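Lecture notes, part 5. Sequence design as translation. It can be helpful to think of inverse folding as translation between two languages: the language of shapes and the language of residues. The source text, in structure tokens, appears below.
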């Protein structure tokens, strides 16, 4: 089409300089034996032509796909959706900055056929695992295949060669629980998610740490895990009220919303009868009447940092790009 800007190729660059395509490729990649003077000539020509190397060709030359695999859990539900959405946003943003694309694969603890296809067909250079599961077969598989990977989540125990990153879930749980104990609450219940998720374990540890800080023993009779249905929540709510609990710590916003629904059905006033706090914030909790005390994490930065750690394994320079992962305790009317 007339007026359309010509797209220059590696052949054009080689022809202009009177050198081979191999020499041009070496100058672009920075690998192979080539003089500094020749490399500078090639780079100057590239800048003049506005030539952009084909990503596929560049990948073949460097044995890279420029793709990152992102593993999301098959059982992802509305419980986890805001977390994974924010995390994925940070991962995709950082990957794009380094000219990588993201391929999403759905897996669970046992069936990970999609992941096997990605690895065996060499469709990705590395993998980000977005949930740390107890005894995860996914991690074992990736280690066996010697695939670079990063886990988002705190591992259960020290694993040789495991690279991981996580929010300060245990520390945040400890601080928020400690604030409630400082306010004089002594019958503090806790409502948690799946026991197979290591984040559940981290939050429980923080809850127990805070009790030890105040020389108290956490009451196991006030700990309710696997709160994945409204029926279970209704049963737990009745037990909490019958036990004379004066407060409840919920491990995430979804569990908190289920509890609030059950309390509303029973005409239980917050915070007059029961104080409520969540270990993960959301807009719904902020807008609830009364607003719910919560922990706020920058999950987008968590995703960015996980991607940086993987890119570093892949030989990319990410100096200064890793952000601090802090949290904020937001005190609201539900714990006054």
């Amino acid at each position: 089409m007339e007026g359309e800007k010509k797209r220059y190729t590696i052949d054009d660059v080689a022809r202009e300089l009177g050198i081979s395509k191999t020499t041009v490729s070496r100058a672009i990649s920075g690998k192979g034996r080539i003089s500094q003077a020749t490399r500078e000539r090639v780079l100057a020509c590239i800048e003049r032509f506005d030539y952009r190397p084909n990503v596929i060709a560049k990948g073949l030359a460097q044995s890279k796909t420029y793709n990152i695999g992102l593993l999301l859990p098959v059982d992802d539900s509305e419980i986890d959706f805001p977390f994974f959405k924010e995390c994925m946003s940070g991962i995709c943003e950082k990957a794009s900055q380094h000219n990588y694309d993201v391929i999403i694969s759905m897996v669970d603890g046992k069936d990970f056929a999609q992941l096997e296809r990605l690895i065996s067909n060499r469709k990705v250079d590395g993998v980000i695992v977005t949930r740390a599961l107890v005894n995860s077969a996914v991690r074992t598989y990736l280690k066996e295949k010697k695939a670079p990977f990063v886990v988002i989540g705190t591992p259960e125990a020290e694993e040789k060669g495991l690279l991981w990153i996580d929010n300060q879930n245990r520390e945040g749980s400890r601080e928020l629980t400690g604030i409630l104990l400082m306010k004089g609450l002594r019958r503090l219940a806790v409502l948690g998610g799946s026991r197979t998720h290591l984040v559940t374990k981290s939050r429980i540890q923080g809850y127990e740490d805070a009790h030890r800080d105040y020389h108290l023993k956490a009451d196991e009779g006030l700990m309710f895990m696997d709160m994945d249905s409204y029926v279970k929540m209704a049963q737990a709510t009745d037990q909490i009220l019958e036990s004379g609990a004066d407060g409840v710590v919920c491990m995430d916003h979804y569990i908190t919303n289920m509890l609030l629904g059950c309390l509303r059905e029973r005409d239980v006033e917050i915070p007059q009868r029961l104080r409520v706090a969540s270990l993960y914030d959301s807009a719904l909790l902020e807008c609830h009447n009364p607003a719910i005390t919560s922990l706020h994490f920058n999950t987008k930065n968590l995703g960015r940092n996980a991607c940086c750690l993987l890119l570093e394994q892949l030989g990319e320079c990410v100096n200064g790009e890793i952000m601090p992962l802090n949290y904020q305790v937001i005190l609201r009317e539900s714990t006054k």
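The translated text above is only one of many valid answers, since several sequences can fold into similar shapes. The longest strand covers residues 67-73.
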